[in-house]
Amino acid sequence: MILETLSLGPGYLILGALVAFSVYYVVRTAMIDRRIRNLGAVRAPSPVNNLFSALAWFMRAGRMQRSNQLLAFFDGVYESATPQSPNCIEIAVGPSIRYVLTREPEHIKAVLTTKFTDFGKGSRFHEVWSPFLGDSIFTTDGPLWRNSRALIRPMFVRERVRDLDIFDHWTNVLISKLPVPGETVDVMDLFYRMTLDVTTDFLLGHSSNSLENPKNDFARAFNEVQRIQMMLAIMAPLRSLVPTAKYHAGIKEIERFIMPFIEQTLALPPSELEKLSSTESSKEVTFLHSIARYSRDPKVIRDQIMADNRGTTLRLYPAVPYNIRAALTDTTLPGVGTGQDVAVLKGDMVVYSALSMQRRRDMYPPVDDAFPDPAVFCPDRWDRWTPRPWTYVPFNGGPRICVGQNFAMTEMAYCLVLLLQKYDRIEYRGDWHAQFHKAEIVGAPGQGVPVAFFEAEDGGEGA
């Protein structure tokens, strides 16, 4: 029979393959639909529901990422949502590969807390992110994740974070790099490099010293790896099309910087590590010494340092724009209003955007003189308004809440206070209307932050 089929020519082979694929597609779709019905749920609206439209969608997402229009792109995606499933859609690459995109607070709450055990990072996320972050707290689930979190959590206790010497030193280094009063400077680059110096000093006991050396290879590599990592995540099924030579070279450069400190620490006898880790003076205790006390595996230490470098360095801007979870079992996301629950099947990827959610106008009071448009920067609104639970999650929430959030907030507050003590006025010298949001692993102003600092003429303290 097989020989007879082969003798019919390539046209029949192609036809046979198409028939076989069609049968598989129909049967697989029917099985998926049955699992959804068994959950008593419905699909989210699916404007992209086949392989070809999905591949085109991911290509467009990649272009939007490169042109820094990802926020507008994702906001436009939700126009396909229905009243029964607002702010949530499905991108179906095929019957078994689905992405559920949401900016609904109740969905984020379910993923992070009420249905925490139903969701995790999953194997696909680990495959994409592990070259950069290894088997760390950001890429693992279950016992491996719990062990990683238990390993690093003691380093972020309140007493350790309250030791302000490290923040004081690097903030003063930053201030020393500012030009004379009245001269324009892009502080975004300075803040990025300062945060990198603080974090490496905190984790390794040795700073990257990028403030003193703007052409620092480690800082450049770290920035480039983050940029490409976001593109790999956005392109998802098409990530093989993303050039990765600079990505892998950047990871090697990062490892070249941190591995000597790991090897130096592992060379210490256990008794010395115990002494360093138990001392009351936190200035003598680095993250590296503490973690080496519990693990002698260089790869484990490397993965945790890479993860925490991201987790603390990238909190200069509080919102991680987009986050991903994989369904570890067949489950649902809660319906909103009178809508039915949304089905999420095992292996489906849930992409939730705190950035998009926190800009939804329908979650805020009506705009008036007392409450400006939510898109407008207005700190005064916090004096008379409090966001509803789960509508503001800059550090996530639940068991996976950012372990370094207090460290990040302390660093930011301390730096800003010192700047405001020295300078009486800060003047923005960019174009507000031309400014745009650059969304990579974290959000940042796309045109930098050009400002000028002015000292008080009367010699008094700053604002």
List the helices and strands and how they pair.
Blueprint: H1 2-7, H2 10-38, H3 51-66, H4 70-77, E1 88-94, E2 97-102, H5 105-114, E3 119-120, H6 122-133, H7 142-152, H8 158-161, H9 165-176, E4 184-186, H10 187-204, H11 217-235, H12 245-266, H13 270-278, H14 287-294, H15 298-313, E5 323-327, E6 331-333, E7 342-344, E8 349-352, H16 354-357, H17 405-422, E9 425-428, E10 437-439, E11 443-445, E12 450-454
Parallel strand pairs: 2-8
Antiparallel strand pairs: 1-2, 3-5, 4-12, 5-8, 6-7, 9-12, 10-11
For this entry, give a set of tags.
Cytochrome p450; 10% strand; three-stranded antiparallel β-sheet; alpha+beta; globular; 463 residues
Structure described in brief:
This protein is an alpha+beta fold and 463 residues long. The protein has helices spanning 2-7, 10-38, 51-66, 70-77, 105-114, 122-133, 142-152, 158-161, 165-176, 187-204, 217-235, 245-266, 270-278, 287-294, 298-313, 354-357, 405-422; strands at 88-94, 97-102, 119-120, 184-186, 323-327, 331-333, 342-344, 349-352, 425-428, 437-439, 443-445, 450-454.
Mean pLDDT, to the nearest integer, reads 82
N-to-C SSE series? HHHHEEHEHHHHEHHHHHHEEEEHHEEEE
CATH classification class of the domain at 134-318 and 394-454: Mainly Alpha
Alpha carbon gyration radius: 25 Å
Question: What is the first-to-last residue Cα distance?
Answer: 87 Å
Total of helices: 17
Count the strands? 12
Structural class: alpha+beta
Major sheet: 5 strands, mixed
Strand content: 5-15%
**Would you give the CATH topology of the domain at 134-318 and 394-454?**
Cytochrome p450
Spatial strand sequence of the major β-sheet: 1-2-8-5-3
Low-confidence stretches: 278-286, 309-319, 458-463
Basic shape: globular
Q: Mind telling me the CATH superfamily name of the domain at 134-318 and 394-454?
A: Cytochrome P450
| Percent helix range | 40-55%
Under the CATH scheme, the architecture of the domain at 134-318 and 394-454 is: Orthogonal Bundle
